[in-house]
Amino acid sequence: MSQLTTVIPVYxxxxxxxxxxxxxxxxxxxxxxxxxxDNCSTDGxxxxxxxxxxxxxxxxxxxxxxxxxxxxxxxxxxASETDVLHLLMA
Length: 90
What we know:
4 strands
């Protein structure tokens, strides 16, 4: 079976991140890897991401704020050699 990776680029997504991550975790076919790419958020996003990192999700945080497409591209670098599901945050 192919490896499935869910990539979630996020910036200040506190309002929706927890429900998104719970939804991903409850899927019948749970991803092999879940990567949360935090674009230097200033709200509660890091706390939510850190809590899910303790449950096996991967949390990566940029050192400085990037343009949305650069954050997305950086997140994709972590998902090489997989079949990738893109899950975008608003």
